[in-house]
Write a structure and sequence with these properties.
Structural class: mainly alpha
Radius of gyration: 22 Å
Order of helices and strands: HHEEHHHHHHHHHHH
Distance between the termini: 52 Å
Largest sheet: 2 strands, antiparallel
Number of domains: 2
Number of helices: 13
């Protein structure tokens, strides 16, 4: 009876606990590859987890009852913390999707990648004469590497086989390494105006590559991820000081049509996952 009375006396807390449990279980099932069927372009598990997180967020905003005698500020703060915890579980490009939906997600990034590389190509004209050759040399392989990644992403969507996935893995690591190398080269440019243009252009590509890398690793075996990480000689920790987090968050939020706060959580989680995997 005490359990029943606690639920009756503290409905918001009980509901929050239930939603947190649903989101957590959904995240675990997704990580184990259990989908329970499809829902649109995703899975039933991902859909349920997302709805649980959304409802928890609404619950956290629900004003406390003044007559309850409890602190509304404390109650809302606690629910807000739990809402954030649940929010971090079903990230759209971290986990919880089928191979087909991940492949489509990767392909959905390709127009943005092509646009970002085009911006890199046009940036040299904005630089000081002495800086343009440095930038051109640092980004010389972007077009070929990006075109290969786009082609492999589309090939995997059409034929999600192990052999095509291996080619996609190699393509994303190759571009990631070129981007990391270009960030290190750009850091040597001393002209402040030139460096601002260069960093903005390269960071546009870097954000998309990190998103695609996260998507590819989410459908790759542990052995494959370890191999990919071993091929990444320029690590994320080395280039992270030159990565523009604000730009990355804005791009992710715009791409997924989601709140900036959610995009920031995704961006941070993706980098954490990449670092833990050895990239």
């Amino acid at each position: 009876m005490n359990h029943v009375s606690n639920i009756w006396n503290h409905p918001k807390t009980s509901a929050a606990g239930l939603l947190i449990a649903v989101a957590t279980i959904g995240s675990v099932l997704s990580q184990q590859g259990i989908a329970l069927g499809t829902a649109g372009s995703g899975t039933v598990v991902a859909l349920i987890s997302g709805l649980a997180s959304a409802l928890l967020g609404l619950l956290a905003r629900d004003p406390a009852n003044p007559a309850s005698g409890t602190s509304s500020t404390s109650s809302t703060a606690k629910l807000g913390v739990w809402a954030l915890i649940a929010l971090l579980l079903p990230l759209p490009f971290v986990s919880g999707c089928s191979e087909k939906s991940v492949a489509q997600n990767i392909v959905n990034w390709t127009p943005a990648l092509e646009s970002a590389v085009a911006t890199v190509d046009s940036t040299a004209a904005l630089l000081a004469p002495e800086d343009a050759p440095i930038f051109a040399a640092a980004t010389a392989g972007f077009d070929a590497a990006a075109n290969l990644l786009v082609a492999q992403a589309k090939a995997y969507l059409a034929n999600p086989s192990a052999s095509v996935l291996a080619q996609l893995q190699a393509a994303v690591v190759a571009l990631q390494q070129q981007v990391n190398a270009s960030l290190l080269s750009a850091a040597k440019i001393t002209n402040s105006a030139s460096q601002a243009h260069v960093m903005a252009a390269i960071n546009g590509v870097a954000t998309i590559v990190m998103a695609v890398l996260s998507l590819v690793t989410s459908i790759s075996s542990k052995t494959a991820v370890a191999r990919m990480a071993s091929e990444s000689t320029i690590k994320l920790a080395t280039v992270r000081p030159y990565m523009d987090e604000s730009k990355a968050v804005a791009m992710v939020a715009d791409h997924y049509s989601e709140p900036v706060e959610w995009a920031r959580a995704q961006e941070q989680q993706v980098k954490l996952n990449a670092a833990q995997a050895g990239f």
